[in-house]
Design a protein that fits this description.
With about 140 residues, the protein is an all-alpha fold. It is built from 6 helices and no strands. The longest helix is centred in the first third of the chain and has 25 residues. The radius of gyration is 16 Å and the shape is globular. The two termini are about 30 Å apart. The mean pLDDT is about 85.
């Protein structure tokens, strides 16, 4: 069973979602803003709850959200919301929360690359998943 969608199918789904968001919010730019805000809110809240929450129900909901995020990353070969943001902004460039790690490095003259940001993303995901598993035991 193959979990990952083919590129044409991914693009079809993302373009459909982008059109739907544009209809709901009235413009691509406004839709992109709400997708970005929703994206960061859900992910940062889930990560925060996994790391800091003492409430077992909130922790479990956050773990379920994290599991869905990890699953969708595998299905869409990356973050579906980042792909949607790019489609709504009509741009391949993306400046998100992971680029905050590159700003201090660039200020001291260390060049950042996509592979470095991917490495930060992967290790962050491993750390959050490890914390979730350790706290669930």
């Amino acid at each position: 069973m193959q979990l990952q969608l083919s590129r044409p199918k991914r693009e079809e789904i993302i373009n459909g979602l982008a059109c739907y968001c544009e209809k709901i919010f009235g413009s691509k730019r406004r839709a992109a803003f709400y997708v970005v805000v929703g994206h960061y809110t859900v992910v940062l809240t889930a990560v925060g709850a996994i790391v800091f929450s003492n409430n077992s129900i909130i922790f479990r909901i956050a773990v379920i959200c994290w599991a869905v995020v990890v699953f969708l990353h595998n299905v869409f070969d990356g973050c579906v919301l980042v792909r949607l943001e790019r489609a709504l902004f009509d741009s391949k460039k993306w400046y998100g929360i992971w680029h905050l790690f590159s700003i201090p490095l660039e200020m001291i003259g260390y060049p950042t690359t996509r592979s470095l940001l991917d490495l930060v993303l992967v290790w962050s995901a491993v750390i959050v998943t490890s914390i979730a598993l350790l706290r669930a035991m």
